[in-house]
Amino acid sequence: MSLALTQTKSYPAWSSRWVFIMAATGSAVGLGNIWKFPYITGENGGGAFVLVYLVCILLLGIPVMVAEVLLGRRGRQSPINTMRELTRAAGLHGFWNHLGWLGVVAGLLILSFYSVIAGWALAYIPEMGRGTFQGAGVAESQAFFDALLADKTRLVAWQSLFMLMTVGVVACGVVKGLGVAVRILMPLLFVLLLAMLIFAYRHGDFSAAAAFLFRPDFTALTGRSVLEALGHSFFTLSLGMGSIMAYGAYMPAGASIGKTVLMVAFLDTLVALMAGMAIFPIVFANPGLNPGAGPELLFVSLPVAFGAMPGGLLVGMVFFILVTIAAWSSAISLIEPGVAWLIEKRGFNRFTANISLGFIAWALGLGTVLSFNDWADFTLGGFTFFGAIDFLTSRIMLPLTGLLIAIFVGWVMPKMMVKSELSGDNSRFYPLWLWVLRYICPLAIGAVLLLGLYDTFTAAG
Ligand code: TRP
């Protein structure tokens, strides 16, 4: 599969919509599903949060994703230039150009902490292989994680390695190779998650986990957690910053966008729920583990399971390799829109474009590294540096760009353009989708954004 996104002149379409599905799934499935979804679910009290998240995916994420793919395919350039071309072609106000910008900035901010967390996963690979967790209990697992977080040199080393991997793939144009790897390894990740699920079913407290995840307790829900669920539904689908728009540029004309998007959203949600059902049974079976533990949840709970299962040394190692690869294919899609733009419009070559953006994200990432040690007590409005970047991107920028995309495609873009892109879709799909995009998406995203921000700042202040 060709993921090389930056030929400026002719954009060769991918051979089939399956290739798009693979690439978009590679972008969507990442740390958001395996690391972030379980921990924010734990922090927000479980079932009710999961339900809101699922409703957000279905009602807001999927329609906005259709809109973003459609924009990408229509424009067939980097997201910033796609927006510029479309607004010019339709004689629209230049304000809409800023959408592309917002995306590039959001991508770099997300990549900055993404590479630190992916670095944690990298650090666990040799540790697993060395048998550090064999027979380890909760206390040992926690102690290992705490020691890792306290060691800035190690954190920066692993963060840097992950960033080099990302920049390296994008710079050398071996994206094609990674594409093939992802095609083989993503299904493997799926199989391994299934195996973890079976282990959790046999050895963990499966029913407590199922009740926690699927029995909604609405008293646990606040405006703040609804906004977090909305923001995460955009984060996990890679929406609102141009990743999906950039991949949409390669989708063959005439292929059904609706069906394709449904497939990607389904796979992404499935992986998140599987990760939740692999982690929480273990959390509930071990009194020392806390579902609301935060970002450390995955890294402290699962090693306990690997330490106890037959062959856990190998399974644990393979698991963290696969998490790294899932993160890798997502990280590439975070940097690519910015790189594509620097090449198209600023005359950078692929190498310098990558190095420059990679360096900015890396330097910003140092703030996240420090958030877990030296700067842990240094908070701004209740957020650490990492918390603030996560908040700014997931809970403000992504919903905001999602909102703007819905308004742009639903109200501003000429209907002829929109309709012709969806000619490959079922005719009953178009009016329903358009209605949701025009009315439900702007109103719901706007309301959740306002209520959530109000709730966050009144509660934190
Ligand atoms: N969706 C990825 C994950 O869940 C992260 C990601 C990749 C992303 N590209 C994005 C998030 C664009 C927001 C926007 O891990």
For the biggest sheet, the summary is: none
Mean pLDDT: 89
Q: Provide the CATH top-level class.
A: Mainly Alpha
So, CATH architecture? Up-down Bundle
Poorly predicted runs: 1-10
Number of β-strand runs: 0
Q: List the quaternary state of the chains.
A: single chain
How does the overall form come out from the CA principal axes?
Answer: globular
Portion in helices:
over 70%
Radius of gyration: 21 Å
How much strand?
Answer: under 5%
Count of distinct structural domains? 1
Small-molecule binders: tryptophan
Overall SS class: mainly alpha
Description of the structure:
- The chain is an all-alpha fold and 461 residues long.
- It has a single domain, classed as Up-down Bundle (Amino acid/polyamine transporter I).
- It has 18 helices and no strands.
- α14 packs across α15.
- Residues 27-28, 30-33, 110, 235-236, 238, 240-241, 243, 330, 333-334, 398 line the site of tryptophan.
